[in-house]
């Protein structure tokens, strides 16, 4: 299987604190990897480095066979990213936020309506970000991540703030993306039930280190 994500000896220190410690991991194209662990395990820092938002102290990240530090723009053109608790201008409407992101990404004209429909935001299109609940903001973050029909999705706690039914809908949607469109997905969670529903690979982190990585039968 062709490798989509290759992480080699990835380490990130913040002063004396080692947030991620010598992480090595490979994910094949079309696979869904759940990065599992408690708060403080290093999941968000790992995702930040995979998205090019945090510079590693040492080690390397390659996506689609290309080193991230040398092919950032080319890689990000094929990658959708959701950071923990996404932030958007409070005064813009849902539709306006997505239109601006679509314009920057060079998306097709119908991309905004499609992303809203797939994430359950169509009825909230005219609402301002400042009036949205945390769960609806999370949906907006996911909609922004899928606008350009990415080949890779990197999602940090994508169901944070969602109720049980919304969580189920998002997980079903992500599973469909992987199975039908062949999208590779890496997402972090501290909920084993989410990982069991969605993932075919599970990597467990604790105190910055990878302590287990298994492929589901």
Give structural notes.
This protein has 217 residues and is an alpha/beta fold. The chain has helices spanning 43-50, 72-76, 94-105, 111-118, 134-146, 164-181, 192-198; strands at 3-14, 17-28, 32-36, 58-63, 66-67, 79-82, 152-156, 184-189, 201-206, 209-215. Strands 6-7-8-3-9-10 form a 6-stranded mixed β-sheet, sandwiched between helices. Strands 2-1-4-5 form a 4-stranded antiparallel β-sheet, covered by helices on one side.
Task: Record the SSE blueprint.
Elements: E1 3-14, E2 17-28, E3 32-36, H1 43-50, E4 58-63, E5 66-67, H2 72-76, E6 79-82, H3 94-105, H4 111-118, H5 134-146, E7 152-156, H6 164-181, E8 184-189, H7 192-198, E9 201-206, E10 209-215
Parallel strand pairs: 3-8, 3-9, 6-7, 7-8
Antiparallel strand pairs: 1-2, 1-4, 4-5, 9-10
Helix pairs in contact: 3-4, 4-5
Characteristics:
alpha/beta, single chain, 6-stranded mixed β-sheet, 217 residues, 4-stranded antiparallel β-sheet
Helical fraction:
25-40%
Extract low-pLDDT stretches.
Answer: none
Strand content: 25-35%
Please describe the biggest sheet, giving its number of strands, its sense, and whether it closes into a barrel.
Answer: 6 strands, mixed
Structural class: alpha/beta
What's the helix count?
7
State the assembly state of the protein chains.
single chain
Number of strands: 10
Order of helices and strands: EEEHEEHEHHHEHEHEE
How far apart lie the N and C ends?
16 Å
Major sheet: order of its strands?
6-7-8-3-9-10
Average of per-residue pLDDT values: 91
Radius of gyration: 17 Å
Shape call: globular
